[in-house]
Structures
1.
Amino acid sequence: MFRWIVIVLLAIGVIGTGVWGYQEHQEKNAILVQAENNYQRSFHDLTYHIDLLHDKLGTTLAMNTKEQLSPQLIEIWRLTSEAQTDVGQLPLALLPFNKTEEFLANIGDFTYRTAVRDLENEPLTDKEVETLESLYEKSGDIEKELRKVQHMVLEENLRWMDVQVALATNDQQADNTIVDGFETVEETVKGYTEGNFGPSLTGTSKENHDYQFINGKEITEQQALEKVRELFDIDENTDITITKTGEGAKVPTYSGSYHTDDKSGYIDISTKGGHPLSLMVNREVSEPKISLFEGMEKANDYLSKLDFKNMEMFESSQYDNVGVYNFVYTEDDIRIYPDSVQVKVALDNGEILGLSSRDYFRNHQERNISEPTLTEEEAKDKVNPNVEIQEQSLAVVEDDLGEEVLAYRFLGTLGQDTYQIFIDANKGIEVQVEKLKVAENKYE
Amino acid sequence: MNFKKFLMLTILTVFTMTGITATHSPKPVEGFSQQVIQHGAVGEDVIELQARLQYLGFYNGKIDGVFGWGTYWALRNFQYEFGLDIDGLAGATTKQKLVNASQYDKAFIREQLNAGNEFTYYGGTPKEQQVKRNTQNQGQNQAQQQQNQAQNEDTSPQPTAVNVPAGFSQNDIDLMANAVHGEARGEPHEGKVAVAAVILNRVESPTFPNTVSGVIFEPRAFTAVADGQIWLTPDDSARRAVLDALNGWDPTGEALYYFNPDTATSGWIWTRPQIKKIGKHIFCM
């Protein structure tokens, strides 16, 4: 009797484990399939978008009027963005696929530039039409290669999960059709990207401005150490580690750091002239004892001590117990927004916890600001009449293409929201329209 | 099995994250404190400022304790109407004028803020008519409220909103904090800021997805995402590092990649031009 009970119980146990195991197995498979489906979706989206992109580029060549051309170029711009997103969803991170991504980005930049321009006054130049033609041709090649891969994937039921495994095991000999296919696509693009966009397109990147205001003599490591000690304001008893950047750095710097029990600091100073580019001090900050306003005065003093001249604060925010201040350089009361510096102040004792001046040094230069051709009133007329303008001033800002333009800055309200609107002071076009940030409710 | 673990972790993370609420310790203040209140400030003084401005009809926004643009314009209009210097700063004179011209019912405001009610505070209208009760979790809130009142009659009202860097939400910050914690746990502060900065540099870069989540979830981009470590609960230091990065700090010098030289399995990563080493990670272009 007892034996039977044991046997029955064991049998139930075995069957139960089996059922459970099977369910687990099913679940695992379901997840795998789902992941695979995501990859498949992205991949097929990508080929579809490239197809469309190719077609649209083709039609632009046949178009002439601005009314048609601009929306079409915008559409292409949107498609490149979609295609880039699709690439980002695929497990290609370790596969050299940058050239193709860059190619897509370049099409995007080119079409956007031409789309936002008033094509009535400035129609496409011969050179630009040529670029469009070659883009059309090249996107055709990519389309063809991608379609080949797509066909193989569908025909032979290839799985992206296998690509992931192949890349993960990092087996150089891995014979994977999809990987091979994408490498072919990359090869196709490689021959093209070099120099085909002409100088007009290289001017779009923000990194163009080249730290021209970093001047002075190269400093030695010993000098750097002294400078770092002075900037951190710490004595000889604390050890500071100094390292120099490698070949990849855009601007060569010495980095200094120290770590004590309750505090640590990290700083970058340029090897040329020893200018501070970034400074961070980390410690626990207790309850605020000084106001955001007093913190600003500390930040102001700090900047003048470091010899940043004519800086004006334009944004301050309190995050828990620290204040973060955004300063811009001003010239004849004109705010130069690209030359910005951020300062972080502890609101418990007013200590400076951070300085970030990369933007300042990257963009700062001697400028020749000419008189605007539009008056303030004329510029105001260009603003959406529903916006109630509260403040206005002149400013230098970067437009979408990274070029500096002189603009009228209008601060206005519409309903509960505040907008910052920049109107080009010479051409009268909207350079930038931005809804200013609002506080976000806490989730309780 | 792995999936279940992952699910548990996710649930745990969600619970702990929702559990985090503001923990400013209360401090008793009579009326405004001495400080000059300026744009961007957060705290009880701002609540009082907003309440008084609303009492006089200048401020129509929510009383939430964060000095935003709405408060700024309201304050300037008040300064204009009362013949003061129009500077958008609440200094001694402005505060005195405000105190003379308006009333501030601290207990009422605290009660509404604590209960999460939608309410306004215009002068001349009975207060009771200006409250729209938060019915969703009223029972719980009332209990909490009574507890609050029983505990301390003098607690300060707490802000119900926070500043966030332009273009980002608290969710973005949390997501990034998760990634930073998973990737750079145990690194020094600058090492954490550096990882957060790389995520942001990738968002800016033409060769990577254009959103924070796109960059983080790009398959095989971050090991912490691949092995589920991203769902560990981040500590406060990860969050602070993310805020630094969002506010403009980048110790990496615009790096797009980083790797741990001891564990890197890809030969390709070594071919990238290196910028510097922070903590255990080498950062490169």
Note: The first helix of chain A runs from residue 2 to 62.
2.
Amino acid sequence: MSATLEIRNLHARVEGQEQPILRGVNLVVKQGEVHALMGPNGSGKSTLANVLLGNPAYEVTEGEILLDGENLLEMEADERSRAGLFLAFQYPVAIPGVTLANFLRHAINARMKAQDPDTKGISIPQFTRLMREKMTMLGIDHSFAGRYLNEGFSGGEKKRAEVLQMAVLEPKIAILDETDSGLDIDALRIVAEGVSKLVGPNMGALVITHYQRLLNYIKPDRVHVMYAGRIVESGGAELALRLEEEGYERIRSAYAASEA
Amino acid sequence: MVVQKRTRGEAVPQYTRADVETLSALRQEPQWLRDARLAAWEIYESLPMPSMEEEWRRTDYRHIRWQEAALLSTPNGAMAEHIPAKMLTPLMGDTEGGTLAFVDGKLVQHRLADALKVQGVIFTDLETAVREHSDLLQKYFMTQAVKPSDGKFAALHGALWQYGAFVYVPRNKAAELPLHVVIYNTHSGASLGHVLVVVEENAQATVQVDYASAPHGDAHATYIGATELIVGDAANLRYVALQEWNRTTYEFSHQRAIVGRDASCDWVLGTMGSRLTKAFIEVDAVGKGANARVSGFFFADKGQFFDLDTQQNHNAPLTVTDLLFKGAAKDNARTLWQGMIKSLPKMQKIDGYQACRNLLLSDNARMDSIPGLEIEADDVACSHAATFGTLEEQLIFYLMSRGITRPEAELMVIDGFFDELLQRIPFEGVRERLQEAIEAKIIG
């Protein structure tokens, strides 16, 4: 059975602030599907990504998020992750003193422990093999595993490390928050090819991007446009091309009236 | 009949010169030692209890009940079997060259490998050393590193010290196996322990010292200690001291390493226990090219107050000192680090570094760091840093977003914070022990 992420009339704001950022988002993403989420800066795309994972910096004031009918809003971020959700962060934080390998092993073991509290977790050789395989697939130097998580990583390295985590954790639904931004053309190709290898029958994706270029590698089934906290237009892959051509001016003037 | 009234805590310990004379007489100490004790006593008497001077003004120890805490502790039958196994575990290698364990100041275990004996290595308790190696003690004991004139508690220690370890590695000899000293207390009162390590020219030693005590209700205990590390020219000392006193113990200690020409001293300190610790930790780089590295771990929780006072003295040119302290405080704990790098005039090409990095784990905890430099030379590379951080929610969220539970995520971030310090420690066993301490502090 394929998993379904369902977002219903979602309203959210920054914790402690009045101004809503999400103002009634509706979206359904199924395992095996690729959805692109586009829109100008400040429209709420990153907020949506963070709210889906349960970032405590945001507060949901209305609406529902369901994964296979289960209410994600009642779950902490770690439970949502173990339920099959993944977020490739736009700005991954650096965690001094914690190596990428150590971190990922903990993440795998946390999943195994949730299934079987008595598990000893993944064996070191098994884990090493898994890391090597995925790093090779993503063109990541193997020495990466021993580096402190995101510390001193270049922009491209951070994005690749996010995709590596996705490859290792094999989520049902992945949200990629501007995984393409700031990458040079070669890095973009490697990251995009990596992502496109992962999307398929086992993984659905919500790809947040400003630009069409990532979508040349990852063909979206649906394209959505977000503006002022709502999805204002949805269409096929051709909508992304159209937005690329005309920019967001049309969207702004068409939907600015509804913003108040 | 006189009804004894419950009195308030005494503000100062009520020792007398007779206490010093009695102690020395009971042990049938040689004249030089008796004289040294009495000279220290004179200094003790001449000094006020420290309170408002710069090193002490943030440290309030007035709540000590000296009527309990000053009682000179005597062994009460506790034996080696009472020492927790954890403390006896060798951390600096699989095989130890020797063990010296004290319970309530009494020597309960003593072993030295033959391989070290034949090299002329001395590893014994101070009482024995006074009898058998009087010349060496007369030369080194509280004459070079820690002196009674260093302060009120150093003077008290000099007058009334009770027990301790003597490590001596002769010239050109390498004590290849680590030596392990265990100091364990089981009751309240004053414990005055001493560690004296002398590594002669071109010699080498590796020493681990564990301090701990069993809980003894709410009665107060003090540890008024001294550590002296004397590292001769071209010698090498690796020294690890871990402190896990119970929560009714107050430590006042003076610790100093003297590092000779082209010598190297790698000193690791872990402060986990005690109600209050006031430690003066000093390194004197006295010979050209001397190199000292000091790595301090501390983690304070409920009701604890650690006051760590470090000083790096560059008394010769081309000396290098590198000091890093990293600590955390949770609950209502308080920590204070005061650091100082000093140089004698015209000591060129010296390189001194000091940093204290703090992780605040509670809004009710408080951490202070006060670095300082007093350099009287111009061709130097000296720097200092103090940083403060908290457990950032965005770091925790990042880890949790990968399925890691909150407690585990917090532990990972805290472990990560300490990693920089642990990486400086060349002994896996020590790193593991500190990691266990971190975990125990977080859970406890």
Note: The domain at 4-259 of chain A is CATH 3.40.50.300 (Rossmann fold).
3.
Amino acid sequence: MVKHNKNQITLMQYIFLIHGVQVGVGLLTLPRELAEIAGTDGWISIIIGYFLSTVAGLLIIQVMKKHPNGTILDLITHYFGKWVGKIAALVFGLYFAFLASIIFIRECLFIQFWILPQTDMFILMLLLSIPTYLIVRNNIKVIARYSQLVFFMTTWMIFFYFSPLKEAHWLHLLPVVKEGWIPIFTAVKVTIFSFIGFEIAFFLYPSLQKKQKASAGFIIANTLTLLILLTITIVIFAFFSPDEITQFKEPTISVLKIVEFKFLERVEIVFLSFYIFVISTTVLPLMYSTVFCLSQLFGAQNHSKFVGWYLLLNLVYIMFITQTFDRNDQLSKLVQPISLFLAYAFPICLLIYVSIHDRIKGRANL
Amino acid sequence: MPFFRRYKKEKKNQLSIPKQQNMPSQNLISSEIVENIAEIQDIFSDTPDLVVKNFVIKQINRPATLVYLSGLTDKNAINNDVLKPLLFEVDKENADLEVKVALGQIKETNTWKNIEDAILQGNSVLFIDGRTVAYQFDTQGWPQRGIEDTSIESSLRGAHEGFTETGSSNIALIRRHIPSRELKIKEMTIGERGKIKISIMYLADVANPEVLQELVNRINKLKVDFIINTAALAEYIEDNPYSPFPQLFLTERPDFAASEIFQGRIAVVVDRSPNVLIGPVTFETFFKSMDDYSVRWMAASFLRFMRYFGFFAAIFLPATYIAVISFHFEIIPLKLLLSVGASREKVPFPPFIEAIIMEITLEMLREAGVRLPAKIGQTVGIVGGIVIGQAAVQAGIVSNIMVIVVALTAIASFIIPNYDMGSAIRMLRFPMMIAASLFGFVGLTVGLMTLIAHFVALESLGTPYGSPIAPLRFTDWKDLFIRFPMWSTVKRPESTRAIQRKKANPKLPEGEENW
């Protein structure tokens, strides 16, 4: 357990790591997906999703408190034995690997679609792999620093979204709950995935310096995510007419088309180029978790060579299989139930088991 | 084959002979002065600047020999303080040598190794017949430069003295700023042949012992023939040799070195080199100049902003121009686009080639100006500015806008107060230009991301290089972009890892009668 002592992250870094993982490619399409299901009431679903994810996140932290100096893998090994621990490492590793790959590929797809339509996906991914490799091969401390820096580098981008408000029609949002609660609850199944990513708290918890503030930090991170999702969704709902939104693939980018400065037009291209940073804070911690799990699985001290292999695998995959948004959507549909299980159901089960186990053991000791 | 073997053997022999000669003799000196002189002649064969002066000490009436290297010693000291009293003066009482020789430092030694080192460092050594000890006199004195104004870290209002090539006087220059007994100096010698004296200076109650130990270990690990100057030492001991950024600070200003020691950092004085090494440093240190602390804080903050702006402009301005012109011309408004188009109308090259031509020209001009004497340097400026700038535009090789971009970039890179950081920045813009010409804004973003990836992982002597930006430490921002008034910064920066964070706080005047 000594291995985590050197790589400690501050509370602020912990907040921005979790927040960074949550906000990424999903935000670009979220308003459309919400509007398709729940119309302009979709923002209520975001709030419901927020509460659900907060509860799940707090449960994760409660679980981790039972074994504060190790990651979830150490905890599982502690309670279930070595082999279950290995299986958990494999499951988590594969899950994070798929999640990271899907987002990574999606990032390339967006870049190709919006900015560089004639560039080969393979080249784009190769390009993005360079900084990715440079960061992920380091320890969690460096990734935390990166997420923190990028958060402060990119927060100004939210101000772009205030300028479409000049032409907003707030009537679009009214009446609230116009089609009943059923569509809103249906849309929660979309929003719940906007908050996905907080399960890296399983791996961050042991590195956190002030563990007593883990819950507060998690709530802050989640709230930050909520605020950003809400701001952008509401701006878009108010700006586009309710039927129009669904016609845009990425309304989050399209809405910026009307932003113009004296010296700069087509802000969305600059915006999206810079948005790569925001997406990278999703991909990098997920990749780190992947290679961390793998190195635990194989009992390797150093995870840096796994990063290279993982990126190479991605490149090979993208070279031989043509990527489209549809395929990517299908893949993410496949991963969604696993996310749901690992991030929401798994902590509950684990918490119940661990509590009962501890109580029985406590009684036995009496 | 036999031929080869013989050749090999010969080579081996050749190699082994000088090795033996270089082995410092551990033997003790003899009491017979004749033997000692023979030994000295043997050690220093083919050394015409060696002076072996035989004489008789009048006081005790015994033959003695004084040995020294003529170029490395102070002739006055030898003649007046050593030879004169020994040759001519007789006291009634049986006074010993220490009393007679009017010099501060007299050491007794008896091994040949010590004697050899002493002579080579400019001491003079006295052998007396019948004694098994020799006496070392501190008579060092060699041609040296006076203290002059600093050349690359010049300052308007700061002190106008710079380090010289003599380690001991550099130490003195720093010590004058820090008259404290907590200022400790660790001395070590490195270089198998060069034998360079290195003095590590720090405040014992402030500097972090771990960092100090790390530095000492790294210097101790060096197995080299010699290091020619401080920059070479820095290259040997820096954390990441593959980084474009300098990770240790080289300064020629005693006041800067002293102020960094006050902050809890460690200074390394290398003898024979007019620069002092400071570590651990952070990225922002390279954007500070001593003048920031000698002007009012608002003006200083303004300059700081300009420097950081210059940093980004120098790296990204040409790259952005290339990206916009070759990929995203739709993002600039029509009027601007038209004027850019008009100026690029005659140019047959893609923007990247155009930019590379101008940038390379400019870099060559700069380098030519640096190495040339000032009088010819002016000519270079004229050739560069008028002939290349204007003629290239008129000939239609480059566009007017490109010239403006390149000129702005050059100015922006010269605003960085540190030479090493300035060179790093000038170098970095080429990969950025390539990335921008291949991928437009995406290339720029990935370039910046790679830079940040490197930046957040880099360390200097084991402390994060990016502090206080990444890891974020808001308390240290008081001396980052805005230089807050001096009285408001009461803590040393966290990046120094000082064990005493709080500075002795010169309390604010307590109001009331202090109108």
Note: Residues 39 and 243 of chain A are 8 Å apart (CA to CA).
4.
Amino acid sequence: MNEILEGLVQAARLVATLDRDLIEIAARSLRVTVTAVVIASALGMPLGAWLAVNRFRWRRHVIAVTNALMGLPPVVVGLVVYLLLSRSGPFGVLDLLFTPTAMIIAQVIIATPLVASITHQAIRELWADYHDLLISIHTTKSQRVRALLWDGRRALLTAALAGFGRAIGEVGAIMIVGGNIDHATRVLTTAIALETGRGNLSLALGLGFVLIALAIVVNVLVHTLSRTERASQW
Amino acid sequence: MVGSILPLRLEAAAVRRGGNRLVGPVDIEIGAEGVTVVIGPNGSGKTSLLRLMHGLERAAEGRVRWAAPRTEARTRQAYVFQNPILMRRHVVGNIAYPLLVHGVRRAEARRRAVDWAEKVGLGEALERAASSLSGGERQKLALARALIRRPEILFLDEPCANLDGRATREIEAILAAARDSGTRIVMTTHDMGQARRLATEVFFLLRGRVREAASGRGALERLATPEARAFLNGDILE
């Protein structure tokens, strides 16, 4: 119990003193995660909508695989990305290993199935509502997907935030491909793992509270800006 | 001069679902003018017939033939559903949507949508979420959205179901104006008073087949088959 209280005090002290290391690590966490979520949304949302609207032979299997990939083990993703980016790997020439870019790649792979799957679920329900109207108005397939993505944007926000939640709390993959290098690839989660390993539990807990606060602030900010709870809005 | 997509001909057309024939075989022709009202008991296939004509159902048998190529015919018709399908947008966004789909610039689409909203009495609700509208307002929105591209033919499935007298009168006034400006109307209704007021042609449907048709002034009263008379008298038909 004492350690939790100490953690809270540590978190308050780090924030109150605007600790330079904390600011740097938190900013990097945000930069890597937001970039990954933007890319994952750009890939996953159209994929999810496309799966909802189109009928093709292996559709059920593709949906099942996409859903299964939501549970992709981050450590395995990290290992595969590590092998691909390592000097002996096919993309070794790009020299990306142990950079924030490698961490973004790993997070994109982890978050995209989640975003695609939630998008598919939301858009499928909206498509059931809109189907007859959009067929009646004689829309093209791309117009249908665009209308569904636009009108389902609040549900898609949830998909993006779920992706954000998964990515910001991720440690296994980015530890492997980022290396937790100070002033280069250290982020909040890897810093927590490091401090825990050193036995500095109150600092680790303090960083953990900062991470939780950051996730909450981003969620509240996004909901506020998108006015999801405003009256007379969908 | 662009040719008309009418007449619409159904030649032994049928709709099947799960091996059951819901409609057909039906042989009818929808000419260029007037208001056709399809009546019949619940489950007689009125909605399926309307959906077949509009292209929302495929003809499992027979043919649905327009006087113009199918693609062109599809773009010059509109459909109003019994339960209006509202997009998750405000009123003006809903009405403007068909114009945007067919390449009209946003500003022009909005201007015309505002114009139509005022015509149907939704001028005060332009920026309201469509979901907040009453039943009558929703139907007016659906009508404005259907009419905004000036369709040559408009299909309506029970457009005044569950509406009060005032809303029904307002909807009928919009339909009469559309008819007078040259839009062909084909609709289903359970309201025999409405059928009397609007119909220039009546199809009586029973068990998926057109049992009787009548046209001209007082078309409803000309229905003479025992089943049609029983239906008009309020008897229960199966």
Note: The longest helix of chain B spans residues 165-180.
